[in-house]
């Protein structure tokens, strides 16, 4: 069976990340968000343990049936969503001072969102190689963006450095440079697209493209 990855067109990728920059960010709160967000880090530790176990079960389900069990899909998507909200609040973006909710579900009035379109069918051949072989080029990119293997809510590497610059700008000017925010969002969007692909949530290969800004790019007319 062919293991050729499904390429994504210029239209919206099945995994969608968006966020609105808080216009009134605190100058100093970012210095202690590591402590304030500690309850989330503890919960996410358990959630990611369950995520890895359930992903193993999803792998075999896809291999046998060509379908991702919907309850596992909903849970795993929720774990990634929760992780993104914590990263957005803390050191993955510093884009809001509003405390993240303790829920796997999307919260419409929270400024950060992440979702994946449920696939009706997945390739039973691609599932054997997508998460390690096909994704290797993206893993090399992520190694640079995140500074190695790290949990999604505690970015390092280039993202961590840019977020540090944003924090320093907040401290001295009270403003988050918009161009810096757009770049940080684009990098996080790349990370979460690859996470969705590696987690078997989609067969659509992540684009090697930096889509900057708080909102997903509009498909071409």
Describe this structure in words.
By secondary structure, the chain is mainly α. The chain has one domain (about 15-100, about 120-205). The protein is built from seven helices and four strands; from the N terminus they run ββαααβααααβ. The N and C termini lie far apart (about 35 Å).
What are the salient characteristics of this protein?
221 residues, globular, mainly alpha, two-stranded parallel sheet
Please outline what is shown here.
The protein has 221 residues and is mainly α. The protein has helices spanning 33-36, 38-65, 70-89, 130-134, 136-146, 157-173, 178-198; strands spanning 6-7, 15-19, 112-116, 204-205.
Number of helices: 7
Strand content: 5-15%
Number of strands: 4
**Low-pLDDT runs:** none
Tell the overall outline.
Answer: globular
**Strand order within the widest sheet?**
1-4
Q: What's the multimeric state?
A: single chain
Q: Give the rounded overall mean pLDDT.
A: 91
The rounded distance between the terminal residues' Cα atoms is: 35 Å
Please outline the helices and strands.
Blueprint: E1 6-7, E2 15-19, H1 33-36, H2 38-65, H3 70-89, E3 112-116, H4 130-134, H5 136-146, H6 157-173, H7 178-198, E4 204-205
Parallel strand pairs: 1-4
Antiparallel strand pairs: 2-3
Pfam families: DUF4389
InterPro entries: DUF4389
Keywords: Membrane, Transmembrane, Transmembrane helix
């Amino acid at each position: 069976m062919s293991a050729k990855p499904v390429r994504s067109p210029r239209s919206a990728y099945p995994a969608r990340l968006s966020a609105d920059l808080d216009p009134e960010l605190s100058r100093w709160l970012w210095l202690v968000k590591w402590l304030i967000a500690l309850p989330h880090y503890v919960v996410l530790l358990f959630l990611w343990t369950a995520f890895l176990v359930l992903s193993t079960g999803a792998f075999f389900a896809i291999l046998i049936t060509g379908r991702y069990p919907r309850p596992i899909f909903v849970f795993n998507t929720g774990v990634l969503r929760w992780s993104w909200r914590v990263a957005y609040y803390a050191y993955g973006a510093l884009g809001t001072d509003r405390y993240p909710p303790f829920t796997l579900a999307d919260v419409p009035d929270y400024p950060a969102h992440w979702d994946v379109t449920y696939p009706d069918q997945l390739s039973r051949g691609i599932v054997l190689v997508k998460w390690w072989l096909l994704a290797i080029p993206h893993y090399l990119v992520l190694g640079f963006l995140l500074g190695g293997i790290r949990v999604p809510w505690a970015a390092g590497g280039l993202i961590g450095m840019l977020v540090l610059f944003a924090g320093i700008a907040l401290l001295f000017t009270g403003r988050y440079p918009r161009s810096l925010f757009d770049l940080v969002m684009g990098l996080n969007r790349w990370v979460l697209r690859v996470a969705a692909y590696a987690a078997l949530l989609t067969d659509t290969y992540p684009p090697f493209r930096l889509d900057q800004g708080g909102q997903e790019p509009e498909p071409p007319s």
